[in-house]
Amino acid sequence: MSKFGVIVTGPAGAGKTTFCTALIQHLRTVRRSCYYVNLDPAADDFAYEPDIDIKDLISLEDVMEELSLGPNGGLIYCFEHLLENMDFLTDPLDPVTDEYLIIFDMPGQIELYTHVPILPALVKQLMHGSLNIRMCATYLLEATFVVDRPKFFAGTLSAMSAMMMLEMPHLNILTKMDLIKGKVPRRELKRFLDPDVGLLDDDPDRALPEEAKAAGLDPTETTNVMSGASYHKLNKAVGRLIDDFSMVSFLQLDAQDEESVGAVLSYIDESIQYHEAQEPKEPVEEPLDDMEGY
Ligand SMILES: Nc1nc2c(ncn2[C@@H]2O[C@H](COP(=O)(O)OP(=O)(O)OP(=O)(O)O)[C@@H](O)[C@H]2O)c(=O)[nH]1
Ligand SMILES: [Mg+2]
């Protein structure tokens, strides 16, 4: 029997917990079962009570106080502690059956999946250990980033970095689409969903003076540094890298819109091949006796 899961990642405030809530709500509406795991040791406000909450093992507040660590060091300590006590996750997850979608809500510190290999280690244990969960990662980025193009490319680069570190099926999602509705023309939005480096050339906020373009943009020239032209060149190099590899594209999400949540869920299902594993069976009316879940 397989287990199925999705890990919800992305920078602080990207809308991860809101997405988890919308996903749980949607799964309940379509009469599917899910199991909610909170792995953010600083989170305490949930619309749906988590079935597993890392705070029952360790809380960031206690770690910071007792070990005199800052929030980032404290978080890394919490995850190291979790990795040493994996039965905290494996014991309750063991009886979860293949109809369930296990949702892992992660903290927003991207250090966890960009340069400290803690999350990759955790994911490896969940996917390849005794639980053998078929899992995909979602990386959430705020749609409001499209208003500032260099910022958007920086965010895209962090998505790519997470994708390479995690080495698992990966979906990038632009969240809070409602906030840019009507503000960005449809045609332009398409260029963000499949990022295209030309977006930086056409950026009305950062048009380069003609003289700077004509000068061939030596990035070491003081005038180019002062005018921002060097940054433009750097941004373009980063943009070209993303473009060349065609590795990053985005789905759109408006967490308030049921249809939008359903569309993202169908991509998740497809990437973990959820439906292929389901036997035709009666809908689940009640959670199983020996475990929680929705
Ligand atoms: N307008 C709008 N606001 C949203 C949406 N999703 C989330 N938000 C708001 O964005 C803020 C952050 O949302 P969270 O879901 O807590 O984000 P998070 O990624 O879990 O944050 P951390 O766990 O702190 O990293 C909250 O004020 C949400 O109400 C959305 O689709 N539209
Ligand atoms: Mg959260």
UniProtKB/TrEMBL annotation:
Family: Belongs to the GPN-loop GTPase family.
The protein's assembly and partners: Binds to RNA polymerase II (RNAPII).
Biased composition (Acidic residues): 285-294
One term of GO molecular function: GTP binding
Functional note: Small GTPase required for proper nuclear import of RNA polymerase II and III (RNAPII and RNAPIII). May act at an RNAP assembly step prior to nuclear import.
Entry keyword GTP-binding: yes
Protein name according to UniProt: GPN-loop GTPase 3
Keywords, sorted A to Z: GTP-binding, Hydrolase, Nucleotide-binding
Feature: compositional bias, Basic and acidic residues: 275-284
Region annotation (Disordered) ranges: 275-294
Top-rank taxon: Eukaryota
SUPFAM superfamilies: P-loop containing nucleoside triphosphate hydrolases (SSF52540)
